[in-house]
Write a structure and sequence with these properties.
The chain is α/β, with parallel strands linked by helices. It has helices spanning 26-37, 54-57, 69-72, 78-83, 93-106, 196-208, 232-240, 242-251, 270-282, 287-290, 300-317, 321-327, 345-348, 395-398, 410-413, 445-465, 475-489, 523-535, and strands at 17-22, 42-45, 113-114, 119-125, 130-135, 140-148, 170-173, 188-192, 211-216, 223-224, 341-342, 354-358, 364-367, 371-374, 378-380, 383-386, 401-403, 432-434, 471-473, 541-543. Among the domains are: 17-51 and 109-155 and 392-486 and 521-543, FAD/NAD(P)-binding domain, CATH 3.50.50.60; 170-212 and 344-387, FAD/NAD(P)-binding domain, CATH 3.50.50.60. The protein has 18 helices and 20 strands. Strands 1, 2, 3, 4, 5, 6, 17 and 18 form an 8-stranded mixed sheet that branches. A 5-stranded parallel sheet has the order 7-16-8-9-12, covered by helices on one side. The relative contact order is 0.15. Bound molecules: NADP nicotinamide-adenine-dinucleotide phosphate.
Length: 544
Amino acid sequence: MAALQETDADHAPAPDHDVLIVGAGISGMYQLLLLRRLGLRARVFEAGTGVGGTWYWNRYPGARFDSESWSYGYSFSQELLDEWDWTEHFSPQPVTERYLNLVADKFDLRRDIQFQARVSAAHWDDDARTWTLTLEDGSRHSARHVVTAVGPLSTPTYPRLPGLDDFQGQSWHTGLWPKQPVDFAGKRVAVIGTGASGVQAIPIIAGQCAHLTVFQRRPNWCTPLHNAPIDKAEMESIRARYPEIFERCRETAACFVHTVDPRGTFEVTPEEREAFWERRYAEPGFGIWQGNFRDVLTDRQANALLSDFVARKIRARVTDPAVAEKLIPKDHGFGTRRVPQETGYYETFNRPNVELVSILDTPIERITPAGLKTTERDYAFDIIVYATGFDAITGSLDRIDIRGTGGRRLKERWKAGLETCLGMMVDGFPNLFMVMGPHTALGNIPRSIEYNVEWIRDLLSHMAARDLTLVDARPRAVRDWTAFVKRKGEGLLSNEVDSWMTGVNMNVDGKQVRTIARYSGTAPEYRDWCDNVAAGGYRELAMD
Ligand code: NAP
């Protein structure tokens, strides 16, 4: 907080920009637009060659939303809502990328976005009260404020296996997929990883290649997406219901259109329960996860019953009982990790050209020039697909050398545990804001993004109106919010399970133990906190 007493800022040269934004995905694009509308000089640095963030990098076969398209797009512009037609209930990546490019064009965003510009460092100067961002090309840019819009799932991670660079064939990570389509025809393919990305890619690749071997570590509970096209007439009816749809998303716990059923699992008869779950399983989207009985993610017995229901579905869809058993999770209950939404995933294992290898039974020992070697045998492949996930939530922040007051590194600040104010600020890092950082509400992510981006806009507007140049979270506010986040995680079965949601990634140093990386209260509660801070005149923040 020493910076608050400094006055040298009055004599320091003016920074190049009012705000620098890191990332041109859904968050960064919207933040740029709003800050520009506020009259601030804002600029975005984006590592890719195009806009879209997640929807720019993740162009693997089968990549698509698993939130309903019409609940996922931006809601801020009536003109955009009027103009854009979704073509499928769960939009495929190419359409989404087109949509985000349309947004960039329509709002003339590109003139303030610098592409192929990866930020490597962000250093705060206490005296000048400015941030200096250094790009990988060595250029430096200064600003009064910085907004990180780097995404919670955007730094791909590879398995820690010897020989990773020895493979002579093609290898691709789902999160770094090339722009030119990968030709699987006639190829022997390996997919390593069966999270949401692998589960989307596997059925498509199986249909295109000569032979597919899926290397599964821990199986996930996957449920049907039930995607369908949207014709003109249906799109018009959706358009007429946009206000109602977005209102509903505002009210639900995780901003999805699905609403938790107020009944407890054991408050209904076994027949009613079974019929309810059958309906949920047959419905599109996350209903079975986000719209289930109120206690299925907190009550062990309720969760075990639901898990048994989904296990029966898997057994019914997979012909070979031994393969079905391998696909059924035994180490965690349904919904306690992110539920992958699938289209023909289980049936893929009935195909003669698909083999499932459980690497819990026969671990991969190394990647070889020809393919890979498990404890059981050698495999030869033409293509290896790594669907092995991301260094989630803090990963993309950790890769930037962020230093706040007194030169303290953000990574160091969080060493003893993540602490934030509202998931957007950290004390000792003045004028730095995170969109979709740790401890913020995620869920149906654009809904949460719009809220955070607007909150940051309002704060900067408040400061501009009062000629304030410095804002820092008060330590007390950080302690209070962090304690609330921890309290909200209590009793959730998901917090007893290793996953990116609990901060675990065995492929990343220092991420072997669970942390409370994610806010797991409801989105309305989250917004109440943030709204109260704003309505109270930002007393939780120190301003100067
Ligand atoms: P993920 O859920 O973290 O899954 C990674 C997979 O790779 C897991 O099966 C994991 O096994 C396996 N794996 C990791 N390291 C391994 C190793 N060293 N050896 C063998 N297997 C290894 O990653 P993801 O599938 O990319 O999905 C991440 C998140 O992105 C999702 O949960 C979701 O939030 C988001 N996403 C969204 C969509 C969508 O909206 N449509 C699509 C894709 C992804 P273990 O489970 O045993 O660790």
